């Protein structure tokens, strides 16, 4: 094995999918309080770190051009914030293989930032629950803390409160029409004023108890179907093509639930088995070759 291989470290940034998303309200500071059941897909960006030298980032892969200015990348933002919080932090050169669409509602940039934090934690002997690391994750972006663990959970607050869930592997198809949607535009269309509640106390008290460990896929689909993604209606106003994606997924044989993830435009559909999901992925790809399509599992 070459020495360069020994010194290069690697992590993946799995796509995040919001199976549900309630907007509880908007806080006085402008941030939105959310409750979301989050799962992670088996498609991911890949991030490598070659230790030593100055902090840097190079993007490769099929969607590298969509990453925008390197200086604005969340990988570098997370690394710089951690360097401020941890004196003498060892860094290095990052290489990002970008396969997930950007501004897509699946936390691609947040997953990349979380992967960077895991790599830097390993390089500097920091625990993943180190207070400095946890604080930097939240300061980097609202989705970075959940991506740091990359495991299914009930996420509340501004993304800072995480309750792990025992989610079965859910056969799914994810589709993005390759149209970016800015999260701020969707929240603007939702139109909450600072300090305004959207979900009443009675609504929160009526929220469902999620299935226990070992529950069947059907039990999860039944529970998930009762709780919507509150950002879907405003996102449809911002980018109507989301409706076309949902219609295409809804027309697939065996679909159990079709919904938008995050603030869009990526949508997902859950199926009863892997064969149905794979067949649906092929169908959507054949009908819309210009769309990004992934058939796999959420867990």
Structural write-up:
- With 299 residues, the chain is of the alpha+beta class.
- The protein folds into two domains: 3-164, Ribosomal Protein S5, domain 2; 170-298, 2-Layer Sandwich (Alpha-Beta Plaits), CATH 3.30.70.890.
- It has eleven helices and eleven strands.
- The chain has helices spanning 3-7, 74-85, 108-123, 131-140, 144-149, 183-190, 201-205, 217-225, 232-238, 241-250, 274-287, and strands spanning 9-18, 22-26, 32-51, 56-60, 92-97, 153-157, 161-164, 170-176, 255-260, 267-271, 292-298.
- The chain is globular and about 55 Å long.
- The protein starts with a helix and ends with a strand.
- Mean pLDDT is 93; it is low at 1-6.
Radius of gyration: 19 Å
**How many beta-strand elements?**
11
What value does the average pLDDT take?
Answer: 93
**Share in helix:** 25-40%
Low-confidence stretches: 1-6
> Number of helical runs?
11
| CATH domain fold name of the largest domain | Ribosomal Protein S5, domain 2
CATH architecture of the largest domain: 2-Layer Sandwich
According to CATH, what is the class of the largest domain? Alpha Beta
**Domain count:** 2
The run of helices and strands is: HEEEEHEHHHEEEHHHHHEEHE
Distance between the termini: 34 Å
Indicate the proportion of strand residues.
Answer: 25-35%
Form type: globular
């Amino acid at each position: 094995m070459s020495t360069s291989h020994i010194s290069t470290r690697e992590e993946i940034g799995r796509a995040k999918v919001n199976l549900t998303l309630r907007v509880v309200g908007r806080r006085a500071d402008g941030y939105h309080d959310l409750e979301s059941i989050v799962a992670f897909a088996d498609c991911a960006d890949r991030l490598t770190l070659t230790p030593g030298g100055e902090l840097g980032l190079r993007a490769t892969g099929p969607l590298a051009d969509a990453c925008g200015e390197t200086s604005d990348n969340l990988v570098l933002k997370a690394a710089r914030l951690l360097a401020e919080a941890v004196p003498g932090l060892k860094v290095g050169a990052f290489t990002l293989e970008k396969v997930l669409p950007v501004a897509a509602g699946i936390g691609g940039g947040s997953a990349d930032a979380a992967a960077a934090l895991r790599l830097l934690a390993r390089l500097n002997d920091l625990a993943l629950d180190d207070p400095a690391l946890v604080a930097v994750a939240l300061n980097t972006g609202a989705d970075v803390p959940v991506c740091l663990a990359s495991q299914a959970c009930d996420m509340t607050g501004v993304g800072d409160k995480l309750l792990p869930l025992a989610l079965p592997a859910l056969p799914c198809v994810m589709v993005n029409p390759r149209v970016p949607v800015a999260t701020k535009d969707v929240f603007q269309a939702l139109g909450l004023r600072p300090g305004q509640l959207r979900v009443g106390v009675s609504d929160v008290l009526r929220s469902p108890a999620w299935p226990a460990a070992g529950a069947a896929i059907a039990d999860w689909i039944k529970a998930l179907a009762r709780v919507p993604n509150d950002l879907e209606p405003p996102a449809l106003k911002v980018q109507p093509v989301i409706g076309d994606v949902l219609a295409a997924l809804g027309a697939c044989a065996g679909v159990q639930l079709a919904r938008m993830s995050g603030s869009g435009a990526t949508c997902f559909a859950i199926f009863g088995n892997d064969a149905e999901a794979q067949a649906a992925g092929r169908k959507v790809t054949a009908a819309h070759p210009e769309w990004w399509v992934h058939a796999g599992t959420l867990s």
